[in-house]
């Protein structure tokens, strides 16, 4: 940890958004930037080599080093389960331990934010930021960027079973096979894009924090958790952090920016006196700004459906993993070990879809996936038979949950209750998605490939049986957003400049500011939020 007492910008959280923001701000040698990160270094092959991340997620002792270890409250619509709520605690944040799937979302998502008053966040502004971030293997065009710090490539050499699955999805759903779902139109099915290249993960650490370390104006303070924002006379003037067994303050000459993620940023604001006044009072914290911090929590859910397919891949054996490592050593960056586990993605419309925007995402894997109702013993059981897995995914959930304090002690985990599937429309959509997947798998295109459904299996056939089994099967995609909502109304926590309402010198920039989750995976949008925040700060100063 570097010892620094003051910086112009003090950023809390070196994750997807915070890493990008810190990297961008420190490109100006006149700006002193301090980045406070609770976790340690990501300079280990566990984080930097794509295939190795599975060790983190399946080995409890290793996981402890990189994950906050949160659990949700028992979920009434999730069979009463307390669902593990993985969040990266490491330089690079969740981008250092995630699945690397690269999706921007539908362009309409951003235009909707703008239409609700979030000026400067429409599709045109978002596209500019994405273009600045990307080094897309397909080269630059009106939508895509080349030459940026984040390498984006496509899954290659799909197994024949996945190729047939892609065609089956296109035919059954009446959508095109698309070359680039991040381009002009999202709707369709095609090879998954990922932030990896040459056997290396392009997290925000790889692309932004590591290059910044050589700059004399940049200070990374890792292994130190922020305890609160210091607010004096209505202005954020620094951050108090827990440095071993003592507390110290890093002062901010210009601004404090919270990038601690959807749980961390809401938690820190409340510990600092920014949140629902009555709730803060219950914990002995005086309210400086009475705002609905922690509300509007929402997340994507999927249901893994696995089908026996002898020409797909085996999974889950030590031999399979070791084989991957050996092949990767011989053919660097060119094996399944150097990629995301997802082969293809589909974006299709359900009967509830509004304004022609796809509302079901299909995550496709060439192997089986751990069944989520086995996550209580922590080490998931993977079906080792060769299989295709398709996960119908609810991308526009209507249910809303919350993050609240359990204590004024900053080391106590907050209470996380996503209220999964509380809204009936969410349950209906997932059941429709499951039935759609069955229709796809029964398509003649897959006749020689698919030999029956392994999970959930034929025991769950009617709508009533699927509805009864759904609570056991739902799985978070780890895409929570919304707890420090951006907007222009009285219930907004930050304004469209990402400034916390009622406190000067304080912004939030991470997944927590999304008013509504975008239709796709949330890592690229979180990095875009970091990029956009850097633009807003540059314009303000
Ligand atoms: C297992 C997993 C798989 C995923 N797979 C994908 C995927 O394939 N594709 C995709 O697009 N998205 C994926 N996601 C989601 C995506 O990674 C997140 O949406 C995104 O990283 C959120 O970015 P963020 O900046 O908001 O938060 P984070 O990246 O989580 O960063 C927050 C940072 O703040 C730090 N922090 C928190 N509190 C404090 C504190 N008090 N003091 C100091 N530091 C603090 C944390 O340690 C962390 O480093 C996945 C997430 C997980 C967990």
List the helices and strands and how they pair.
Elements: E1 6-12, H1 16-25, E2 33-37, H2 45-48, H3 53-58, H4 60-66, E3 70-71, E4 84-85, H5 107-115, H6 123-133, E5 134-136, E6 150-154, H7 160-173, E7 188-191, E8 193-194, E9 196-197, E10 200-201, H8 204-212, E11 218-222, E12 225-232, E13 235-243, E14 246-258, H9 261-271, E15 274-275, H10 277-282, E16 289-290, E17 301-302, E18 305-313, H11 318-330, E19 344-348, E20 360-365, E21 387-394, E22 402-404, E23 415-417, H12 424-441, E24 453-455, H13 463-473, E25 475-476, E26 506-508, H14 523-540
Parallel strand pairs: 1-2, 1-14, 2-11, 5-6, 14-26, 15-16
Antiparallel strand pairs: 3-4, 6-8, 7-19, 9-10, 12-13, 13-14, 17-21, 17-25, 18-21, 18-24, 19-20, 20-21, 22-23
Helix pairs in contact: 1-8, 1-14, 5-6, 6-14, 7-12, 12-13
This protein binds flavin-adenine dinucleotide.
- Average pLDDT, all residues: 94
- Which small molecules are bound? flavin-adenine dinucleotide
* SSE-based structural type: alpha+beta
What is the global morphology? globular
Strand fraction: 15-25%
Number of helices: 14
């Amino acid at each position: 940890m570097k010892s620094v007492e003051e910086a112009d910008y003090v950023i809390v959280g070196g994750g997807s958004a915070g890493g990008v923001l810190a990297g961008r701000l420190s490109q100006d040698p006149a700006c002193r930037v301090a980045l406070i990160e609770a976790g340690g270094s990501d300079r280990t092959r566990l984080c930097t080599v794509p295939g190795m991340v599975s060790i983190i997620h399946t080995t409890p002792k290793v996981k402890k080093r990189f994950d906050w270890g949160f659990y949700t409250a028992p979920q009434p619509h999730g069979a009463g389960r307390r669902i593990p709520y993985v969040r990266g605690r490491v330089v690079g944040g969740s981008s250092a331990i995630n699945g690397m799937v690269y999706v921007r979302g539908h362009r309409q998502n951003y235009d909707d934010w703008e239409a609700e008053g979030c000026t400067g966040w429409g599709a045109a502004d978002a596209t500019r930021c994405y273009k600045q971030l990307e080094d897309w293997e397909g080269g630059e065009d009106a939508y895509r960027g080349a030459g940026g710090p984040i390498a984006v490539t496509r899954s290659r050499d799909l197994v024949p079973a996945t190729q047939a699955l892609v065609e089956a999805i296109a035919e059954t759903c009446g959508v095109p096979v698309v070359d680039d779902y991040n381009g002009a139109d999202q709707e369709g099915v095609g090879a998954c894009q990922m932030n990896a290249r040459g056997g290396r993960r392009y997290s925000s650490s790889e692309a932004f924090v590591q290059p910044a370390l050589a700059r004399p104006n940049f200070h990374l303070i890792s292994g130190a958790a922020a305890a609160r924002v210091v607010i004096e006379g209505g202005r954020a003037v620094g951050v108090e952090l827990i440095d071993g067994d003592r507390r110290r303050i890093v002062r901010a000459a210009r601004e404090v920016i919270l990038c601690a993620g959807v749980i961390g940023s809401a938690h820190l604001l409340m510990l600092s006196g920014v949140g629902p006044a009555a709730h803060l009072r219950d914990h002995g914290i005086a309210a400086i700004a009475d705002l609905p911090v922690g509300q509007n929590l929402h997340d994507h859910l999927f249901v893994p459906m696995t089908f026996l397919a002898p020409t797909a891949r085996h999974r889950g054996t030590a031999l399979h993993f070791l084989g991957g490592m050996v092949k990767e050593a011989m053919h660097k960056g060119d094996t399944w070990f150097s990629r995301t586990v997802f082969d293809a993605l589909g974006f299709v419309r359900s009967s509830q879809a509004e304004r022609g925007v796809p509302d079901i995402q299909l995550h496709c894997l060439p192997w089986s996936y751990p069944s989520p109702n086995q996550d209580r013993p922590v080490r998931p059981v993977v079906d080792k038979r060769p299989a295709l897995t398709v996960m119908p995914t609810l991308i526009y959930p209507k249910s809303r949950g919350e993050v609240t304090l359990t204590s004024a002690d900053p080391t106590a985990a907050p209470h996380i209750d996503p209220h999964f599937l509380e809204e009936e429309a969410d349950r209906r959509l997932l059941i429709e998605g499951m039935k759609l997947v069955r229709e796809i798998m029964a398509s003649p295109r897959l006749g020689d490939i698919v030999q029956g459904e392994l999970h959930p299996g034929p025991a769950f056939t009617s709508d009533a049986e699927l509805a009864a089994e759904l609570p056991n099967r739902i799985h978070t995609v780890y895409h929570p957003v919304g707890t420090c909502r951006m907007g222009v109304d009285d219930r907004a926590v930050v304004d469209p400049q990402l400034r916390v309402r009622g406190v000067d010198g304080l912004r939030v920039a991470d997944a927590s500011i999304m008013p509504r989750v975008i239709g796709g995976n949330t890592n690229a949008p979180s990095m875009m939020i970091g990029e956009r925040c850097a633009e807003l700060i540059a314009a303000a100063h």
